[in-house]
Write a structure and sequence with these properties.
Blueprint lengths: L2 H4 L5 E14 L2 E4 L3 E2 L3 E8 L3 E6 L2 E7 L4 E7 L4 H7 L3 E2 L6 E2 L9 E8 L6 E7 L16
Antiparallel strand pairs: 1-2, 1-3, 1-10, 4-7, 5-6, 8-9, 10-11
Length: 146
């Protein structure tokens, strides 16, 4: 098989999204069992960091880039309540069993695992130290979804 047919030309369909809780004890990271995060539609991550240039002798004498990870969005059909409770610090009220967003709660870090269809080598990806944020609230009428 030639190199051209073995390489990826495109990837599509975000698949197999899982999250695993991150725990750090005495500076040692460990991860819990990954749980499937179903309903993932798309993900858009942008690399974070800066290019650092040191000019000397009339030229770029030293050039490097800082790696500050990624920032972006994971678009879900619906963020599951268990994820909101476990990773975003929401609580379930004792009386009404209603999921409550708490302004002062602390988010739990996690690893995000995922893959893409169309990957000829069936690779999986891991982002090791993620923090979730509050999701946007958006609604639409059924008629507009056509």
């Amino acid at each position: 098989m030639s190199e051209m047919t073995e390489s990826n030309k495109v990837h599509y369909d975000l698949i197999d999204v899982h999250v695993a809780p991150l725990t750090i004890v005495d500076g040692v990271a460990s991860y819990g069992t990954p749980e499937p995060l179903t309903g993932a539609i798309s993900m858009d991550l942008s690399a974070q960091g800066d290019t650092i240039k040191l000019r000397a002798d009339g030229m770029n004498y030293y050039v490097t880039e800082s790696n500050d990870g990624y920032k972006g969005n994971l678009n879900m059909a619906m963020v599951p309540d268990w994820f909101k409770a476990k990773y975003l610090g929401h609580t379930v009220s004792d009386k009404d069993k209603v999921l409550v967003e708490n302004a002062n709660s602390e988010n739990l870090p996690f690893a995000l695992l995922y893959g893409f269809k169309g990957d000829k080598k069936n690779r999986r990806h891991v982002l090791y130290n993620c923090m979730g944020g509050r999701s946007s609230v958006k609604g639409d009428n059924k008629d507009r979804m056509k």
